[in-house]
Amino acid sequence: MAVKISGVSLRYDRLPVLSGIDLSVPENDFWVITGPNGGGKTSLLRIIAGLQPPTGGEVSFYRQGVPVPSLNIGYLPQKSHIDVRFPITVSEVVSSGLVRGDRWFSRLSDEERKQVGEMLDRLGLADLRERPVGQLSGGQLQRTLLGRAMISRPELLLLDEPSSYVDRVFESRLYELLQEMAGHTTVLLVSHDVDRVSGLATRLVRIDKTLEVLR
């Protein structure tokens, strides 16, 4: 088991967003989460990522069956809050996924620079590495943020509608990349287009305030 969610609930004012969510995600499983807009899918990912405290319940993490305080998590939000006016390049955004703790102003090692270069190649961004993010199309920015989420080789990868804004050609490449990670990384992916990703899924669930296992 990698993640255990016990009785997680979330309310905004008096409005219930999630209610009594219980689930256990085995290590290296690939879960696809679907459901209606406003059903709580994004909120659940944010709670797992530690960005949103639940109103009730708790999230626990495990590594090889042993409880741990946290995992190395990669997170791709549905909507980026990155300020595209900020003078930061594609390669800098991707490499920021390697930054932990007080390392903000330290240089990348040779191995880390190699990782960044390989990730840019895999995402078709090598020719854009020095381009400011403010000059990117929506699809190019989405690929850049995906690179940031994946660059650290996370134990747990949380993807909220990762195919948003990207064209069909890269969407196919995205699923190839995810297939390469299958069996090595625990993946929780939110998607409305279940048909495209259901073949990768070890479990398919639906969230509309509560949890329903579809497969």
Description:
The chain is 27% helix and 28% strand. With 215 residues, the chain is of the alpha/beta class. The strands form 2 sheets. Strands 6-7-8-3-9-10 form a 6-stranded mixed beta sheet, sandwiched between helices.
What's the quick description here?
By secondary structure, the chain is α/β, with parallel strands linked by helices. The chain has six helices and ten strands. The longest helix is centred in the last third of the chain and has 14 residues, at about 170-180.
Q: How many E strands?
A: 10
Overall geometry: globular
Structural class of the secondary structure composition?
alpha/beta
Q: Report the radius of gyration as a whole number of Å.
A: 17 Å
Distance between the termini: 18 Å
Specify the helix fraction band.
25-40%
What is the beta-strand fraction?
A: 25-35%
Poorly predicted runs of 5 or more residues:
none
In this structure, how is the largest beta sheet organized? 6 strands, mixed
Mean pLDDT: 89
* SS field, number of helical segments: 6
Order of the strands making up the biggest sheet: 6-7-8-3-9-10
Helix and strand run: EEEHEEEHHHEHEHEE
